[in-house]
């Protein structure tokens, strides 16, 4: 990803596990987005948090020291997930044990999907997609986009 560009970004929990089903994990995501926004590292234009993935339309404004904000986001949220699971759900934490040399646990799949937004039409299409995601037959999490708490739909 490049600074100053807007992206439709999707990151998925490893093995498509429904880790984000609990509100406390969705709150970790919201808090991370707020922190990065308050520090003027990102601008968020839309989001939805699903049980096993997130979609975000955002712009990377500044690096967080040497790393891009999306890396800071996944590292911070993974750290918080690990801390909570170790304390309250150790049996679930073991599901995320990693065999990789550089980490003990892995929560996010590698290589999140990042699609550069190249037009207003594309931005509106992706925004509609993420806001309708909770209503899809597969998820059936709400009756209207604005009703789903874990989405930016209510702000539009």
Brief summary of the model shown:
This protein is α+β, with helices and mostly antiparallel strands and 156 residues long.
Structure description:
With 156 residues, this protein is α+β, with helices and mostly antiparallel strands. The protein has a single domain (6-79, 108-155), classed as Transposase IS200-like (Alpha-Beta Plaits). It is 34% helix and 17% strand. The protein is built from 4 helices and 4 strands, in the order E-H-E-E-H-H-E-H. It has a 4-stranded antiparallel β-sheet with strand order 2-3-1-4, sandwiched between helices. Helix 1 (23-38) packs antiparallel against helix 2. It is globular, with a radius of gyration of 16 Å. The two termini are 26 Å apart.
Low-pLDDT ranges: none
Mean pLDDT: 95
The beta-strand count equals 4
Question: Largest sheet, order of strands side by side?
Answer: 2-3-1-4
**Count, helices:** 4
Helix- and strand-based class? alpha+beta
CATH topology: Alpha-Beta Plaits
Number of domains: 1
Portion of residues in helices?
Answer: 25-40%
| Topology as a string of helices (H) and strands (E) | EHEEHHEH
Key features of this structure:
single chain; 156 residues; alpha+beta; Alpha-Beta Plaits; 4-stranded antiparallel beta sheet; 4 helices; 4 strands
Write the layout of secondary structure elements.
Elements: E1 6-12, H1 23-38, E2 42-49, E3 53-60, H2 69-88, H3 90-93, E4 113-116, H4 120-132
Antiparallel strand pairs: 1-3, 1-4, 2-3
Helix pairs in contact: 1-2
């Amino acid at each position: 990803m490049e600074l100053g560009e807007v992206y439709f970004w999707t990151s998925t929990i490893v093995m498509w596990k429904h880790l984000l089903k609990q509100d406390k994990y969705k709150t970790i995501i919201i808090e991370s987005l707020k922190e990065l926004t308050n520090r003027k590292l990102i601008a968020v234009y839309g989001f939805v948090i699903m049980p096993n993935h997130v979609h975000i339309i955002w712009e990377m404004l500044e690096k967080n020291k040497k790393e891009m904000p999306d890396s800071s986001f996944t590292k911070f949220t993974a750290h918080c997930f690990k801390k909570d699971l170790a304390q309250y759900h150790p049996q679930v934490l073991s599901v995320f044990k990693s065999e990789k040399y550089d980490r003990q646990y892995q929560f996010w799949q590698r290589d999140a999907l990042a699609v550069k937004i190249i037009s207003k039409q594309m931005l509106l299409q992706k925004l509609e997609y993420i806001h309708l995601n909770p209503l899809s037959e597969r998820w059936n999490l709400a009756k209207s986009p604005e009703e789903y708490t874990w989405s930016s739909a209510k702000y539009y």
